[in-house]
């Protein structure tokens, strides 16, 4: 069966990690290595008695914080059964011998999290949030250089022996030694993942929600848009297929720039890789590694499939919100057995996967169904809450040494340095951690590196320290935003909880009315336009970051048709 002409289905699940699975490394025909937030690296081998099943053959222990990037060392004199290179948030890269499961080298030198590892012949090359690339030979550092002005998120080696890096500065760079041969410009946010596309160029995955295929001359050959959130990883197969993993809980399969399949997961997809046989391996935030296949003899049995879909359904229900409440928190149909207190009283109950509104009919002593309650934004767009206050982000920060996870709140409009200062004081942590906390904020919020004065500021007023000879009323480093208390409001009015499905239903209702009117039928939308509108609404509903590449010219034309051509009484939902 051709792998580019069939849909991927679940083959098997690899369970053992106790937290998010962050990275995947395909180790030739030897097996699969995975890394996790649980601080371990696991090496899985195929069960000889069942070609679908993998077992954890080795568990590599040594990192003291999250483990991310991995690289495979093919068998050689030093590593007769191969080896693994891992990078962690503990600033270390480690080299492991798979024959013994022991750590051979600990590569110390980076100042911040190691984000990428690659093999260059027998050398190890590592990238870091500290903006540097480092080359290691037999466990010793032989060179390092600042490769970007912002955090480096990934590094890979090309067949031509050059290196490619991706950074939070939104660019890719092509390196020959320490010389930058070319800078690739096009993404509008952090470049998070990289992969080689044989005979064509290099693939990049970005926080801007897109995947790009680049020629090594820096020209964009193809842009793939379809994810509704950060794209963390990308990989290619000899068949020409591409796979990507995203925060939107989907792994997507691409063919000739078109998404041909979306594989839903019960959590964020941190990484996705192809096996040589065309199967896909995904790493999910639920702690499970999954294998997906198009080969009928490797598809999971009915019990395993039912278990997966049941778990997926429960995950979706736990995230779904109705009228601002989680669906799972709504009362069930048994609530309709209790009479209402007054005529017209309304309640919302859970019916299957939906919320349904009922009104109490005092005369007939029964609950009358009003209709389905339009869903509010789900958890992917809802702002997290800490101590009763909403933020753009609430990060989990692991400071190590057996300490509990700390919560770090942050808004994108905030000054990250002020945020770091306040947080360090609140948590009674050394101010020497300040720059590391700022880098953590910028990296995990997907923002470009700030160009800010990093001198001391009072963490509560934002003011600089007093310097003798300067005016005492010097402006604060972070100006106070004006608050508009009166109308007319002169700024942008933001609707961050729009009922997009309700809007779509109303447009469809008006469109049916136009189609039934012979004089106005020409103004109605075609089936193709309706389908495109559904896609646009899905993007608007599920993402919190919009950019010019999200929508095509045809989408703009569709919006204009609704606004300019439809009767005045019908243009409001448009």
From TrEMBL:
Record bears the keyword Cytoplasm:
yes
Location within or outside the cell: Cytoplasm
Matching InterPro entries: ARM-like, PFU, PFU_sf, PUL_dom, WD40/YVTN_repeat-like_dom_sf, WD40_PAC1, WD40_repeat_dom_sf, WD40_rpt
Task: Please indicate if the UniProt record lists tRNA-binding as a keyword.
Answer: no
| Pfam families, A to Z | PFU, PUL, WD40
Keywords for this entry?
Answer: Cytoplasm, Repeat, WD repeat
Q: What Gene3D superfamilies would the database entry show?
A: Leucine-rich Repeat Variant, PFU (PLAA family ubiquitin binding), C-terminal domain, YVTN repeat-like/Quinoprotein amine dehydrogenase
CDD domains, per the entry = WD40
Ranges for the WD repeats: 14-54, 84-106, 145-175, 184-224, 224-255
List GO molecular-function terms, semicolon-separated: ubiquitin binding
Query: What GO terms in the biological process aspect are recorded for it?
Result: proteasome-mediated ubiquitin-dependent protein catabolic process; ubiquitin recycling
Query: Where primarily located?
Result: cytoplasm
- Give all residue intervals belonging to the PFU domain: 359-455
Per the database record, which ranges form the PUL domain? 485-574
Source domain of life is Eukaryota
Q: Which GO terms describe its cellular component?
A: cytoplasm; nucleus
Q: Could you tell me what this protein is called?
A: Phospholipase A-2-activating protein
Species whose genome carries this gene: Vitis rotundifolia
């Amino acid at each position: 069966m051709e792998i580019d002409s069939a849909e991927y289905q679940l083959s098997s699940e690899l369970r053992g990690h106790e937290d998010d699975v962050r990275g995947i490394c395909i180790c030739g025909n030897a097996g699969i290595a995975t890394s996790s937030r649980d601080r371990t690296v696991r090496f899985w081998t195929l069960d000889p008695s069942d070609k679908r099943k993998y077992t954890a053959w080795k568990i590599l222990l040594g990192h003291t914080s999250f483990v991310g990037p991995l690289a495979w060392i093919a068998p050689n004199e030093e590593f007769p059964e191969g080896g693994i290179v891992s990078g962690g948030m503990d600033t270390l890269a480690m080299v492991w011998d798979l024959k013994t499961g022991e750590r051979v080298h600990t590569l110390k030198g980076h100042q911040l999290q190691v984000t990428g590892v690659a093999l260059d012949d027998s050398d190890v090359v590592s990238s870091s949030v500290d903006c540097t690339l480092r080359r290691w030979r037999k466990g010793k550092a032989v060179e390092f250089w600042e490769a970007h002005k912002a955090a480096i998120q990934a590094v890979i080696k090309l067949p031509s022996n050059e290196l490619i890096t991706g950074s939070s500065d939104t660019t890719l760079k092509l390196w020959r030694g320490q010389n930058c041969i070319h800078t690739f410009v096009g993404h509008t946010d952090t470049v998070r993942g990289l992969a080689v596309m044989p005979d064509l160029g290099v693939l990049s995955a970005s926080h801007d929600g897109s995947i790009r295929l680049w020629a090594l001359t820096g020209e964009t050959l193809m842009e793939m848009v379809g994810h509704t959130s950060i794209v963390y990883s990308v990989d290619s197969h000899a068949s020409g297929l591409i796979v990507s993993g995203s925060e939107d809980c989907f792994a997507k399969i691409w063919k000739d720039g078109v998404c041909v399949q979306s594989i839903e997961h019960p959590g964020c997809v941190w990484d996705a890789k192809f096996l040589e046989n065309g199967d896909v391996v995904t790493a999910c935030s639920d702690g499970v590694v999954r294998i997906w296949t198009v080969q009928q003899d490797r598809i999971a049995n009915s019990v395993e499939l039912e278990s997966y879909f049941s778990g997926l359904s429960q995950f979706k229900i736990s995230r779904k919100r109705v009228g601002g409440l989680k669906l799972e928190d709504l009362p069930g149909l048994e609530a309709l057995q209790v009479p209402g207190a007054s005529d017209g009283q309304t309640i919302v109950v859970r019916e299957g996967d939906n919320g349904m509104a009922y009104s109490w009919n005092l005369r007939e002593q029964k609950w009358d169904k009003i209709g389905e309650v339009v869903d509010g934004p789900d958890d992917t767009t809802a702002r997290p809450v800490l101590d009763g206050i909403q933020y753009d982000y609430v990060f989990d920060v692991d400071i190590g040494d057996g300490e509990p996870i700390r919560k770090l709140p942050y808004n994108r409009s905030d000054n990250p340095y002020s945020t770091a200062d306040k947080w360090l004081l609140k948590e009674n942590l050394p101010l020497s951690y300040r720059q590391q906390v700022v880098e953590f904020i910028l990296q995990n919020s997907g923002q470009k590196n700030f160009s800010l004065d990093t001198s001391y500021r009072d963490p509560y007023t934002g003011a600089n320290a007093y310097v003798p000879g300067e005016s005492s009323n010097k402006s604060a480093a972070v100006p106070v935003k004006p608050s508009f208390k009166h109308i007319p409001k002169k700024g942008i009015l933001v609707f961050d909880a729009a009922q997009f499905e309700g809007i779509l239903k109303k447009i469809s209702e008006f469109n049916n009315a136009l189609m039934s009117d012979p004089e106005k039928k020409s103004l109605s939308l075609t089936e193709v336009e309706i389908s495109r509108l559904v896609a646009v609404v899905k993007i608007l509903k599920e993402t919190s970051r919009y950019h010019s590449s999200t929508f095509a010219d045809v989408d703009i034309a569709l919006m204009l048709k609704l606004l300019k051509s439809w009767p005045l009484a019908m243009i409001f939902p448009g």
